[in-house]
């Protein structure tokens, strides 16, 4: 989180090598107000539904017959990142679904025997299972961090289920081979927490200090966002999940090839390793968190359907909570792409 991100450095490397096409991007007009310190809206009562391997907790807003939008949160955040954006979208007639990812909030595994797997293909499969359980054939997907990665995974593997995509930080699908390569020391420093999680001490430290640890990540990933104690407390409650630490530790160890995934996801991971093009209408959003790579050029070629790239200055990592109006506007504009 400190300095240029690992994926940001990868993008700049690709640009230097001429591997990426320049994107046409627009800088969103500067905000006249600071990011909200706390959500201005509340999410509705949490519902539960059995979907695949999970009993998924989710919030829902908007008319039942509205165009479905599924918003996916990241780490170390939760569904309250979307409290304001969901209210905006519901007010415009969308049916908004905001689920807790595995290991967060009220989402639970149906079986104690299921491996607590945090790999990207598993999270993507969770979204498809949720859509099936809710009888949603197609939806616009939006996300950031883990949620942005998961939305990209679903759009890449199951494009027939995705009507449109809003992806913060663009294409951040994990490339295991690339992640095994070292970076310059200053870039490596930015990923200290991933290396911390790779150790027994780090796992124990996260287990003992989850709330304080995640608050540190909030502050370093969004240095200009002055969130208040109430906002953090809303999300911190989601970390009090019996599987949270196991999922987080496995996710980051898997990314570094220090933990195995499950064979049931091998075919999906093999497809993702080929970097399949994403054909659905897409808007990518970059923020200050993306550093010098915020122009989006390194991943422009991945998106072959209708496409826009937007840049938000003075906004950190938690884009939908820091800039809910701009995030919601991107969802609305993706929906307009479908109507052209």
Automatic annotation (TrEMBL):
Record flagged with keyword Hydrolase: yes
Domain AB hydrolase-1: start-end pairs: 68-196
InterPro entries named among the record's database cross-references: AB_hydrolase_1, AB_hydrolase_fold, AB_hydrolase_sf, Epox_hydrolase-like, TAT_signal
GO molecular function annotation: hydrolase activity
Keywords: Hydrolase
Annotated protein name in UniProt: Alpha/beta hydrolase
